Automatic annotation (TrEMBL), chain A:
One of its GO terms (cellular component) is periplasmic space. Residues 59-141, 152-234 form the Cytochrome c domain. This is Cytochrome C. It comes from Magnetospirillum moscoviense. It is found in: Periplasm. Gene3D superfamilies: Cytochrome c-like domain. InterPro entries: Cyt_c-like_dom, Cyt_c-like_dom_sf, Cytochrome_c4-like, Cytochrome_c_Oxidase_Subunit. Heme c 1 binds at C71, C74, H75, M115. It comes from the Bacteria.
UniProtKB/TrEMBL annotation, chain B:
It is found in: Periplasm. InterPro entries: Cyt_c-like_dom, Cyt_c-like_dom_sf, Cytochrome_c4-like, Cytochrome_c_Oxidase_Subunit. The keyword Transport applies. GO terms for cellular component: periplasmic space. Heme c 1 binds at C38, C41, H42, M86. SUPFAM superfamilies: Cytochrome c. GO terms for molecular function: electron transfer activity; heme binding; iron ion binding. It comes from Magnetospirillum moscoviense. Binds 2 heme c groups covalently per subunit. Keywords: Electron transport, Heme, Iron, Metal-binding, Periplasm, Signal, Transport. This is Cytochrome C4.
Length: 251, 201
């Protein structure tokens, strides 16, 4: 009995710790939280805020390089992320996608406790810095060898991709800058899997509700197959870097 | 009736007020650190742990220390000696006193342990496994005030914390920022990182 009580207590404590956003940063560091998935009147990609400001600023690539130095600790100087999916590949991602996600993370519209401190203005700067770093990231050539799934169900994945994903994310996973839809091709499989699960469960609070609704029926097999397929699509050759490339900006 | 009882009530309020003000007046961190028995395990300078495995506290970030004290009292932090040793002690410490203790600890100089030469492997891992991003160069420049200094920490203590965060035995505070990257680090690598941190000059 005592063990049971203890187990329940531990579970409660764990739930409390993970259930809240748990940003213990002082109130002064903490921006007001916007509406998120499930809130009344939540609007995906609502206008306003730093996202709009950053979009209308002329980017400074040299400053973008300096800002990116903070990002490089995890996303690597090349922007290639980790093939195990711990950190996503940023290289080649659309300008508007980077701007939106960065603005969302620091406005606490997307939970990312690991990255949060590095998105704060005192680390990287204001909207101009967001514009600069997004432009820098967009110019980085992509990882030619991203992390893949097991490769066992690719025909099924291809079929699902065409039916379910291509309408928004493009016929080869290229995304759509104007619509803030991310490039998925050659993104690390495990990263895609994690984000996809979080979108499905509503844990990724800045998700597009249309997608949340659309993917509810997909089974584990469907999910793995479609994400494995998209992680293996090669972007156009001019977007890919050579194997083993090291970013000279950080040498 | 009401008028008659007023002086008594006033007196009572005054007395209660004084009793309540007692801890506030005594909220002198240095005094509390001795009175509450902290020195017994953490040393008079808050930097000489009684045994390997106990943390050095001097010079820690105040906000981080305050959170840990509150979390050990409430049970949110329940790894290691937190539930059986620290929790009962903290039952007797108010939140205001914990704040005073945290501020006192933060005001003390960060004294480094005697250094022994290390292989360099730990330093390399500290840089490449992304530890440096949050805890700063040599573990001495945490990126947020709510993150701990880890440079110069007791080797066994810092090793245990890394393992406990990796395995989710410790889940309080901002460990949810660190846990998702801990699978990048093998257990043997954690040992090397702990050795490096303990011997930061």
């Amino acid at each position: 009995m005592k063990t049971l009580i203890r187990a329940v207590a531990v579970a409660l404590v764990a739930t409390a710790a993970f259930g809240t956003a748990a940003y213990a940063a002082g109130a002064k560091d903490k921006p007001a939280q916007g509406k998120s998935l499930g809130d009344k009147d939540y609007q995906w990609n609502a206008n306003g805020g730093e996202k709009d400001e950053a979009l209308h600023l002329k980017p400074d690539l040299a400053n973008g390089r300096d800002v990116y130095e903070v990002c490089a600790a995890c996303h690597l100087p090349e922007g290639w992320g980790q093939t195990d999916g711990t950190f996503p590949q940023l290289a080649g991602q659309h300008n508007k996608v980077i701007i939106k996600q960065l603005a969302d993370i620091r406005a606490l519209n997307r939970d990312n406790p690991t990255m949060y401190p590095f998105a704060l203005p005192d680390q990287i700067g204001g909207p101009q810095a967001i514009a600069d770093v997004a432009a820098y990231i967009g110019k980085l050539k992509m990882n030619p060898e991203p992390g893949y799934g097991d490769g066992k169900d690719l025909e099924h994945g291809k079929k699902l991709y065409k039916e379910q994903c291509a309408r928004c994310h493009g016929d080869h996973g290229q995304g759509d800058n104007d619509k803030y839809y991310p490039r998925l091709e050659s993104q690390h499989y495990n990263y895609l899997l994690r984000q996809y699960q979080w979108i499905k469960e509503g844990k990724r609070r800045n998700a597009n509700p249309e997608m949340v609704k659309q993917i509810q029926w997909m089974s584990d097999r469907d999910t793995k197959a479609v994400l494995d397929y998209v992680s293996r699509i090669k972007p156009p050759a001019n977007l890919i870097g050579p194997k083993g490339w090291k970013n000279p900006d950080f040498e | 009736m009401i008028v008659k009882s007023t002086p008594t009530l006033t007196a009572l309020v005054l007395v209660l007020g004084l009793v309540a003000a007692g801890p506030a007046l005594a909220a002198d961190g240095k005094q509390l650190f001795a009175d509450k028995g902290c020195t017994a395990c953490h040393g008079e300078d808050a930097n000489t742990p009684l045994e390997p495995g106990y943390p050095r506290l001097s010079g820690q970030n105040a906000e981080y220390a305050f959170t840990q004290l509150k979390d050990m009292k409430s049970g949110k932090r329940n790894n290691g000696l937190s539930p059986d040793t620290m929790k009962p002690i903290l039952e007797e410490v108010t939140e205001e006193e914990m704040k005073a203790l945290a501020d006192y600890l933060a005001s003390l100089p960060r004294l480094m342990a005697a250094t022994t030469p290390t292989s360099g492997e730990g330093r390399k891992l500290y840089m490449t496994k992304t530890c440096v991003a949050c805890h700063g160069k040599d573990g001495l420049k945490p990126v947020l005030k709510t993150y701990p200094f880890v440079g110069g920490q007791d080797q066994k203590y810092i090793l245990t914390q890394m393992m406990d965060i990796k395995t989710s035995k410790r889940v309080n505070g901002l460990t949810n920022a660190m846990q998702p990257v801990m699978h990048l680090v093998q257990d043997s690598e954690i040992e090397a990182i702990a050795e490096f941190l303990a011997n930061v000059k």
